[in-house]
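User: Can you recover a sequence for this backbone? Please restate the input before giving your answer.

Assistant: Of course. Working from this structure:
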């Protein structure tokens, strides 16, 4: 007998026995409760019916007494009035010998039941009405005469009794033929009542509960009360069907339970056979989280770890060589630092079998480690720490400690470690089980093992790997490999920084630090295209220091260089962050103002003129230290051209600004000119720069009659 069959049989024995016992108990309980409830209901109904019949007899007595008290001449009128008012359906006035004197209502009946007859005188013969009598008391009435008030036994009376009782009512002694009843199965009820004791509750053949009421004093009717059971006739078939259905469900559940329990064991046995044959790639499906699921997961981890060990033993050296070749190709073929670091990180992860990792570089301005390449993989222990860090302070956490000491660290973090034994991690560092972190150093850098913060010389960042596949700790061979990759990363960082610095130097002027003429040609082309695309103006200012040759002749070329450097600083102090300043060549400069029209450029020209004119350039003669500093007063001439008002091409805009500069020079220097319309041939607009304090550049408002702040155009 297989394990599945044994589990199925045990489950059925445990489940079906309680179901069968429960079904029998429910059936017995329902039947007992139904009989008790029916007996109580019929008891209440019997009292209600007797009260109703007694009330009806009392009404008949009252009607008979009213008829008897009337005079002979008014008796007919009174009788008819009693019939109209109800519940009297007929009145009979009889002489002492029983002969009729008069009547009202329905025709005379052959037989009726007297409400006042004694109990032993009430028979089971059939009659058609209830009646009550009163003797005639009038002076003209014959002695021994009586007045009878009658209530016919009909369907209406039966329905009133059933409504008062709340159950079905059948009158056995009513009518010559048939029965008066409100029960659709009166025959079955009467048959059951006939065989039962008076006032006893019994069950009829069709499942109804029945009680018989025999005639008594004041109640001459023979009645049968009946009510349905407290459960439908289909209760027992339904209960049986439910038991059968429960049995089928139990069988199906037992089959599925046996299958779900033995199937993982069967799969595990087949997988173990394949592992014994040398196939380490086999995996067992993990379908549940119970013991069998945990067993399958453990088996999978075991085979996976064995597979990793085999792969690591057979391919680690060749893999390291391949990755070093890829790194060499990447370093020689690109200056994209992010791409290089991603390649280094992927190579390190593959070599050391890490599941997650990050490369973070030192940010010297913010004193932090900033992430430049990360591989986040879910599965870290702890909540909310599946992603790897972006920034970590240099003096905090595991990563900061490696960066500031320059010493690699590796280890394991156990969840049950005491706080004083666990590794102090920064809140932004990932939670992990195993880790290895090595510093990224430049080839010529000096790494001091115990160097305090800040970062030791040569340290450029850290390379971190987390959660080695298979769950083992990172070992010494992993440290050796990661130091190799970290060295490659240090070379890449320095190479990219050198390349970026060389590129910056090729586009900037070494004396002033401004953009050079080469970058001017590229920038003016881009800004003209952007201004055309967004339909915005673009202003270009060309500046030239007046009589700069005299400065060089009087103070020497070092002093002239100092004047140029100071002039560049003053330009930077006046323009916006979005504006671009260039050294055009010699003592000539250019300033590009995006989204600025001619009035806005004129405002800046006035400010530049004041910044140069009102404060002399203070330098040391011949640039020698220790000499007295001398102030040198210089002025500047400025030419202004605006796209698209004065030109629509980069070369045309630069040429229009040069022409405006020449016009400012011709006008006496220390001023600015705005280019005229090249198509109309109009002369350049002359706007001299007034001398004096800063308030002198304020424009006159004709309406106000006083000085107003300079108007600023879009963006100024």
């Amino acid at each position: 007998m297989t394990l599945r069959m044994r589990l199925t049989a045990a489950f059925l024995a445990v489940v079906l026995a309680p179901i069968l016992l429960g079904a029998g108990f429910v059936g017995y309980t329902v039947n007992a409760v139904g009989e008790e409830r029916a007996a109580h209901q019929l008891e209440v109904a019997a009292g209600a019916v007797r009260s109703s019949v007694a009330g009806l007899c009392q009404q008949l007595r009252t009607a008979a007494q009213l008829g008897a008290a009337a005079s002979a001449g008014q008796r007919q009128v009174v009788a008819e009035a009693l019939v109209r008012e109800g519940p009297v359906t007929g009145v009979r006035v009889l002489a002492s010998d029983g002969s009729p004197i008069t009547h009202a209502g329905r025709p005379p009946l052959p037989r009726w039941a007297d409400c006042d007859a004694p109990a032993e005188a009430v028979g089971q013969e059939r009659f058609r009405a209830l009646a009550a009598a009163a003797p005639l008391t009038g002076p003209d009435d014959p002695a021994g005469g009586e007045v009878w008030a009658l209530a016919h036994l009909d369907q209406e009376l039966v329905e009133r009794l059933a409504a008062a009782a709340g159950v079905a009512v059948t009158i056995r002694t009513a009518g010559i033929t048939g029965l008066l009843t409100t029960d659709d199965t009166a025959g079955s009820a009467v048959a059951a009542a006939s065989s039962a004791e008076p006032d006893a509750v019994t069950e009829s053949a069709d499942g109804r509960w029945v009680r018989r009421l025999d005639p008594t004093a004041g109640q001459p009717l023979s009645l049968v009360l009946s009510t349905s059971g407290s459960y439908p006739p289909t209760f027992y078939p339904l209960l049986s069907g439910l038991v059968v259905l429960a049995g089928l469900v139990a069988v199906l559940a037992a089959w599925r339970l046996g299958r779900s329990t033995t199937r993982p064991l069967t799969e595990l046995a087949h997988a173990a056979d394949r592992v014994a044959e040398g196939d380490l790639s086999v995996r067992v499906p993990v379908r549940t989280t119970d013991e069998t699921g945990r067993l399958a997961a453990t088996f999978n981890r075991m085979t996976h770890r064995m597979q990793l060990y085999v792969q690591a033993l057979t391919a680690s050296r060749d893999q390291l060589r391949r990755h070093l070749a890829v790194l060499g190709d990447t370093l020689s073929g690109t200056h994209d630092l992010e791409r290089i670091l991603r390649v280094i990180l992927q190579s390190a992860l593959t070599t050391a079998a890490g599941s997650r990792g990050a490369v973070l570089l030192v940010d010297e301005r913010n004193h932090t480690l900033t992430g430049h390449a990360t591989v986040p993989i879910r599965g870290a222990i702890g909540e909310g720490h599946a992603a790897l860090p972006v920034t970590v302070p240099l003096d905090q956490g595991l990563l900061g400690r490696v960066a500031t000491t320059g010493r690699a660290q590796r280890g394991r973090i156990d969840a049950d470690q005491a706080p004083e034994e666990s590794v102090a991690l920064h809140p932004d560092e990932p939670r992990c089980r195993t880790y290895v972190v090595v510093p990224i150093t430049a080839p010529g850098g000096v790494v001091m093992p115990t160097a305090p913060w800040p970062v030791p010389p040569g340290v450029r960042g850290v390379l971190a790997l987390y959660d080695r596949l298979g769950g083992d700790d990172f070992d010494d061979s992993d440290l050796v490999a990661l130091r190799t990759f970290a060295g490659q990363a240090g070379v890449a960082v320095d190479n990219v920084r050198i390349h970026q610095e060389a590129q910056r130097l090729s586009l900037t002027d070494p004396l002033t630090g401004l953009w050079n003429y080469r970058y001017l040609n590229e920038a003016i082309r881009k800004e003209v295209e952007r201004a055309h695309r967004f339909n915005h103006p673009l202003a270009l200012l060309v500046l030239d220091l007046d009589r700069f040759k005299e400065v060089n002749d009087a103070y020497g070329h070092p002093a002239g260089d100092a004047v140029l450097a100071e002039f560049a600083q003053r330009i930077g102090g006046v323009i916006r962050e979005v504006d671009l300043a260039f050294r055009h060549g010699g003592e000539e400069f250019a300033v590009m103002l995006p989204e600025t029209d001619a009035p806005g450029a004129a405002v800046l020209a006035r400010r530049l003129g004041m910044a140069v004119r009102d404060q002399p350039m203070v330098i040391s003669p011949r640039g020698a230290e220790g000499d007295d500093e001398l102030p040198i007063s210089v002025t500047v001439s400025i030419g202004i051209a605006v796209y698209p008002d004065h030109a629509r091409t980069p070369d045309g805009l630069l040429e229009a600004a040069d022409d405006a500069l020449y016009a400012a020079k011709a006008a006496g220097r220390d001023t600015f000119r705005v280019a005229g319309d090249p198509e109309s041939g109009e002369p350049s607009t002359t706007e001299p720069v007034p001398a004096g304090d800063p308030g002198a550049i304020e424009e006159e408002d004709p309406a106000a009659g006083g000085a107003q702040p300079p108007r600023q155009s879009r963006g100024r």
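That completes the design. The two ends are 94 Å apart (CA to CA).
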